[in-house]
Design goal:
137 residues; alpha+beta; 4-stranded mixed sheet; 3-stranded antiparallel sheet; 3 helices; 9 strands
């Protein structure tokens, strides 16, 4: 994935990440009083915050405000983030080296993008959603 792709910048646990726009089937603003949404087949949508998945030992400072909806074959998963920031054009995703890739707790990172003089991780939302859906069975 080293050719330029359209990425969306999101904040989760106070940290910046990029996610491929191709992985997102919908964006939703969350309301605390809203009932749990259902997918097209009438099943409850699985909703999980990204922050505790990425940093399980840290307490959440704020409740997530926006949902990145990923549709899988059998269900939809809403991955909750603090905020969706902006689109990023023409950024090339560089794969992580073998040493860094092996040190990840889960294989949920596609690579990194050099932006603002610092590397920003690009998350694999489809993989995260699939892992969550499997764990929920």
């Amino acid at each position: 994935m080293s050719s330029p792709v359209l990425l969306l910048e999101v904040l989760a646990a106070g940290r910046r990440y990029y996610v491929p726009c191709a992985h997102i089937d919908g964006l939703e603003l969350l309301r605390p009083d809203a009932p749990l949404a259902h997918d097209k087949r009438g099943r409850p949508r699985l909703a999980r915050s990204l922050a505790p998945l990425l940093y399980p030992s840290e307490a959440l400072a704020t409740a997530p405000q926006q949902a990145l909806v990923v549709r899988l074959r059998r269900r939809s998963v809403a991955l909750l983030v603090d905020r969706v920031e902006q689109l990023a054009h023409d950024l090339a995703v560089q794969p992580l080296g073998p040493l860094l890739a092996r040190s990840l707790a889960a294989p949920w990172v596609l690579g990194a993008v050099a932006a603002d003089l610092a590397p920003i991780l690009v998350l694999d939302l489809r993989r995260i959603a699939a892992d969550l859906a499997l764990a929920a069975l």
